[in-house]
Amino acid sequence: MFADACQKAMNFTRPVAVSTRLYDGTLNTDIGSMIVINEDGWIITAGHIFDSFVKFQKDMKKMEEINEINASRVQNPNAPSSEIKMDKSMITNHSFWWGWDGVRINNVFVNREVDIAVGKLEQFNPTWVKDYPVFADPGHMRIGTSVCRGGYPFINIKPEFMEDKKAFRIPGIPAQKFFYPIEGIYSHYEEKGRSIDGSCNKNYIETSSIGLKGQSGGPIFDKEGRIYGMQVLTDHRPLGFHPTTELDGQKYIENQFINVGVGIHVSTIFEVLDSRHIKYQKEGDETGFRIVG
């Protein structure tokens, strides 16, 4: 059912690699997803993709303050050290990889409350994307519609850090090979009011299928490839069942949950894009698609 739609989604959905190095030398690369909106290189992704970068900025400021304090202190040779120790979990180096080598992001806007981020890729070649996305008309979206989500879970990367260049090296990520879809149905629409900054409504789409780690920022789309929302989290809903199980002679109560995928509804995506005058393709009422912006 979704074979043709997935082929479309593979064109405009790309992986995002977030690499960090901690004070104790620990290296890590997490993978997320992004949707390339138009030929100008504008993208949307989950706001939490930037969480580690925000922490990195705070940690850099903390380390600078600690170094200044330590440098200003006079140490008595016979006294215990008064040096302030660095937290080993602080991030000392940070890097994004935006789907292609040599590409950077600029004009970034992050609304963490809504969990959406917008940015423009620099050094972007519009021919890299053969099919740009078409967003569904909210008026045509119906509960019970079969939908699919795509993104980049199950990618395990061991980064290297080049000390001389203060840069990360990661292996190539063949996006088409690692694109992973999961189907389900559009099961619920939820309105959570206006964002604190007043920029948009917090509208969400829920699906009967979960979102996997690595699919955050990826599209939720119908069998025609029209985007219904953008995956941001998996929610765990208690069912109210508490069966007991026995292990090694001990009885345990198990709480039963259902896991649902949650994405940002297209109506909220439209508000964010419109407020920044970013053009996008939207499903037409009668004659195909129209470009908004």
Structure description:
The chain has helices at about 5-10, 50-70, 175-180, 265-275; strands at about 15-20, 25-35, 40-45, 90-100, 105-110, 115-120, 135, 145-150, 160, 165-170, 180-195, 200-205, 220, 225-240, 245, 250-255, 255-265, 280-285, 290. The protein is α+β, with helices and mostly antiparallel strands and about 290 residues long. The chain has a 6-stranded antiparallel beta sheet with strand order 4-1-2-3-6-5, with helices on both faces. Strand 9 (about 160) and strand 10 form a beta hairpin. The two termini are about 30 Å apart.
Strand content: 35-45%
Side-by-side strand order of the widest sheet: 4-1-2-3-6-5
The number of E-state strands comes to 19
Mean pLDDT: 93
Which descriptor suits the 3D outline?
globular
Helix percent band: 10-25%
Measured distance between first and last alpha carbons? 31 Å
Q: How many helices in DSSP terms?
A: 4
Largest sheet: 6 strands, antiparallel
Rg calc: 22 Å
Helical/strand content category: alpha+beta
Low-confidence stretches: none
What sequence of helices (H) and strands (E) makes up the elements?
A: HEEEHEEEEEEEHEEEEEEEHEE
Quick summary:
The chain is an alpha+beta fold.
Topology of helices and strands:
Blueprint: H1 3-12, E1 13-22, E2 27-36, E3 42-46, H2 51-72, E4 91-98, E5 104-111, E6 116-122, E7 134-135, E8 146-151, E9 160-162, E10 167-169, H3 175-178, E11 180-194, E12 201-207, E13 219-221, E14 227-238, E15 244-247, E16 250-253, E17 257-265, H4 266-275, E18 280-283, E19 289-292
Parallel strand pairs: 7-18
Antiparallel strand pairs: 1-2, 1-4, 2-3, 3-6, 5-6, 8-11, 8-13, 9-10, 11-12, 12-17, 13-14, 14-17, 15-16, 18-19
